[in-house]
Structures are given as structure tokens and as C-alpha cells.
Amino acid sequence: EQWIAERDVIASSPEMGQDLDHATLLREKFRDFARETGTLGQEWVNNVTHRTDQLIDIHPEAATIAEWRDGLNESWADLLELIDTRMQLLTASYDLHKFFYDGSEIQVLIEEKHKELPEELGRDVNTAESFHRMHKTFERDIHLLGVQVQHFQEVAARLLAAYAGEKAMAIQKQEQEVVKAWKALLDACEGRRAQLVDTAEKFRFFSMVRDLMSWMESVIQQIDTQEKPRDVSSVE
Fold first, then answer.
1. Burial group, residue 16, by CB count within 10 angstroms (0-12, 13-18, 19+)
2. What total number of domains does the chain contain?
3. Which domain holds residue 201?
4. Residue 234 lies in a domain
5. Is the same domain home to 9 and 91?
6. Is there a contact between 112 and 101 (Cβ–Cβ < 8 Å)?
7. Helix residue ranges, H only, the chain
8. Which end of the chain is less enclosed by CB atoms within 10 A, N or C?
9. Helix axes 62-116 and 165-225, enclosed angle (nearest 10)
10. How far apart are CA 125 and CA 201, in angstroms?
11. Model confidence over 31-60: pLDDT tens digits?
12. What does the alpha-carbon distance between residue 84 and residue 98 come to, in Å, rounded to a whole number?
């Protein structure tokens, strides 16, 4: 009974962790505690129950022994339920801390990607098209980041269904900040893609105009350099 009482104290701890690292440590330690308690405790309870069952058949105070045995089994069942409840609470605490940690990490990644977007558009068609190809690669690279954002939103929806009040407001705020940052990055990508396309088209247009002007000058020069007729008969 004392062994069960000692573990009741541990399983009743209200400590849930101050941050992700702390919550992770508490959960891992309690998982080991639950595993050890379940293995040793069940074996011990089974042995005690078996011995008391034997005593009940021969002991004059069989009713008292049976009552004690039932009380022991009830205490053991209560301890297992307490362990299960605390494990669920620690897991919930871990999930919540991880949500906010992941949100901060995703925002940092989004900001870093945003800073990687160059402003230069190119000096000619070749450089503009080169920048455009690089931008397509960049957009493919951030696809995985988009998957992370989507998963983060799914976790937020699950947590919002489990929490209310200030925690729910904090969850919603964190989700909104991540989504806002992600949308800003997508808008910036779309804007740069449009600028690069326009720039390449502009340089292609200028190139076409230069080619046309060059051709016109060549034709005019050919006309000017042709031998002019000296009289009517030469024209004929």
C-alpha cells in the first residue's frame, strides 16, 4: 500500500512544463515511470492477490483479508487511471508547447526565405530569363515550407477544438501570424515573377525594335548606294 501511495504522489503532480524542452523531459521521465510502475506493480499485485486468495480459504478472518485484497486492487486500479490521466495531460502540454515552438520556427524560415528574394531584374533578355529560371527553382524550394504551414494549420484546428479562453486565443493568434507571413511571401514571389516576365518581354521588345531599325537602316543604305540613272534611256 505504501508503494502505491508513493506512486500516487508522483502521478498526481500538477507540473506540466514551462517550455517545450521542459515538457519533453517531464513526458519522457513519466513515460519511464509509467512503464516501470505498470510492470513491477502488476506483478506485485498479482502475487499478493494470489497469496490472499490462498489465505482466504483457510484463515479465520477471511472476510477481513478479502476486504483488504479488494481495497488493494481498487487502489492499484486508481493508480493506473491516475497514471493514464497524467500521461494524457503531459502529452497535451507537450503538443501545445510544440505548436508554439513550431510556429516560431516556421516564421523564422519564412522570413529567411523572404530575405533571399533579390530585387535585381536583369540588364537584358538573357539575365532576365536567367533570373526567371532561378525564381522558378526558388518557388519549388518553398513548396515544402508550404506543406509545413498547412500541417501547422491542421494542428491549430485540432488544438482549437480542445482549448478555450486565453489558450484558444493564443493558438489562433499564432496561426494567424504564420499564415500572414506565408501569404506575404507568396505575394512577394508572385510579384517578382510578374516583374521578371514583364522585364524579359520589355527587353525582347527593345531587341525587336533594334533589329527592325537596323534592317530599315540597311535598306535605306542600299537604296542610297545604288547607282542613280543618268538619263531617260538608262532608266529604260
1. middle
2. 2
3. 117-222
4. no
5. yes
6. no
7. 2-11, 20-58, 62-116, 125-141, 143-160, 165-225, 232-235
8. C
9. 20
10. 8
11. 999 999 988 888 888 888 777 777 776 666
12. 21
- pLDDT tens profile 2-33: 888 889 999 999 999 999 999 999 999 999 99
Question: Are residues 137 and 49 part of one domain?
Answer: no
Nearest-angstrom CA–CA distance, 131 and 126: 9
| 83 and 121 inside one domain | no
| Residue 230 forms part of a structural domain | no
Tell me the CB-side half-sphere exposure of residue 57, using CA atoms within 13 A.
5
Which has the closest alpha carbon to 66: 42, 49, 89? Answer: 49
Cβ neighbours around 85 below 10 Å, total: 12
- What's the distance, CA 86 to chain centroid? 26
> DSSP secondary structure string, 121-186?
--SSHHHHHHHHHHHHHHHHHTHHHHHHHHHHHHHHHHHHTT--HHHHHHHHHHHHHHHHHHHHHH
- The tens digit of pLDDT for each residue in 192-224 reads 888 888 888 887 777 777 878 888 888 787 787
Biggest alpha carbon distance in the chain? 154
Q: How far is Cα 231 from Cα 59, in angstroms, rounded to an integer?
A: 151
How many Cα atoms within 13 Å fall on the side-chain side of residue 95? 18
